[in-house]
Amino acid sequence: MKKSKGFRCFYILVLTTFIIFGTALVIRLAELQCGNEFYEQIEETDKLLSTASVIHSPPMTSPVRPAVPKDQECEPILPIPHELSLRLSHFVDEYSDAAIWLQIPDTPLDYPVMLGTDNQFYLNHLPNGNKNALGSLFLDYRTNEDSVHLIVYGHNGSGGKMFGLLKQYESQDYFLGHKTLTVATSDAVYVCPIFSVRRVEAGGNAYRLEFEDNNSLTDYINQAVAESLYPIDVELENAARVLTLSTCTGWRNQRFIVQAIMR
Questions:
Q1: Element (H or E) spanning 91, and its range?
Q2: pTM strictly above 0.85
């Protein structure tokens, strides 16, 4: 009799645990599906924008286009109006926290980047403010018009979602096929050559935001080059700004970053 009661209690415990974890899994999968649908809708809207005849309104002031010395000023590489700037402008109309648009050509990485009031909210919220495990790509909240180091955070999503494909850059062969990032502000589009790919400590020197002068920025870039997983041959003279894409690796205090010169 006691064995029967003990077995029944054990069975109920196992069944309850299964139901709880099963329910949590279903909820998470449903949440991820909602996130995927949101970004798929953005993609469909972008296709319409790219094929439609769009009259581009006068450019807005970009919250992340820093003022830099004249001799180091980064000129837009691509003509304006450009498709990415049009997409960003359209997105900002709906979601005012959108700051830039980030794309790695010929890959699925093609997303708006948000700028919030902290580095937590957009970790688990979509650009529309809905809570979601996919989250958003977002700039460090301390980014301003004088920033020379722009850091974009994003989840290492499964199936290459968000920053999930960054791990492909561990292979030099992958880098050789995808050497640049494209960044659009509301009034300019930049082609940014990648100069370093590395694993770093979360919150370490790689995430430094303040630089005393151009020499200290140059020292930072040289260190990043030296720590890259493989040598990258790129022109670094007169580099005015650094763009860093950061994601997790599965190790608690380790991050994987891809860094480019924004010019």
A1: helix 83-94
A2: no
